[in-house]
Design a protein that fits this description.
By secondary structure, this protein is mostly beta strands. It contains two helices and 14 strands, in the order ββββββββββββαββα. The strands form four sheets. Strands 1, 3, 4, 7, 8, 9, 10 and 11 form an eight-stranded antiparallel beta sheet that branches. The longest helix has 16 residues. It starts with 12 loop residues before the first strand and ends with a helix.
């Protein structure tokens, strides 16, 4: 797939060094690298997202700079991110972020130490938990993630999960 960069920041190179922590193709470009802070532009192809992960000893700041994406904190519903919006992921909070099913997405990402003096440590899951993550999610007519009606049977939720999976992976 040839991706058109949705951001004014560099697209970067394929994010091969972290590919095992993503479902789909992402790209990584350094925007600022210094001893105090580093900022990266991360671009996700449509439907790409990273796996659940945790940043210990630091908050992650995401600033959406192009396209449409989502992030989700554990035990919360996914929230949409569009260019100009920002979110702070608290330390030690399991979360994921990525592109909408039909639209690429870019965000700037940087870490803010928690003041403990300990280095920021990233705990990543190498395998996505799609069914657990998306069992209660469906795509609406815009391709946005929404909660399925709580009255929908398990079987119907499962079918909708598989449809969303196929839309997101092209499979």
């Amino acid at each position: 797939m040839t991706i058109s960069n949705p951001s004014p920041f560099p697209l970067g190179e394929p994010n091969d060094g972290f590919a095992q922590y993503f479902d789909g193709q992402s790209y990584l470009a350094s925007v600022l690298g210094s001893s105090e802070i580093s900022i990266h532009n991360v671009t996700f192809e449509p439907g790409c997202r990273n796996h659940w992960h945790i940043h210990h000893h630091g908050s992650q700041i995401l600033i959406a700079v192009g396209g449409r994406g989502y992030y989700q904190l554990e035990n919360e519903v996914p929230k949409e991110l569009k260019a100009g919006q920002a979110v702070r992921i608290p330390p030690d909070t399991k979360h994921w972020h990525g592109a909408a099913p039909s639209e690429s997405f870019s965000h700037l990402a940087f870490m803010m130490p928690d003041g403990s003096g300990k280095p920021i440590d990233n705990e990543r899951q190498e395998h996505s938990r799609w069914v657990r993550t998306y069992t209660n999610l469906c795509a609406d007519s815009r391709g946005a993630y929404i909660l399925c009606s709580s009255g929908i049977s398990f079987f119907r939720r499962f079918v909708r999960t598989m449809v969303l999976w196929n839309e997101m992976t092209g499979g």
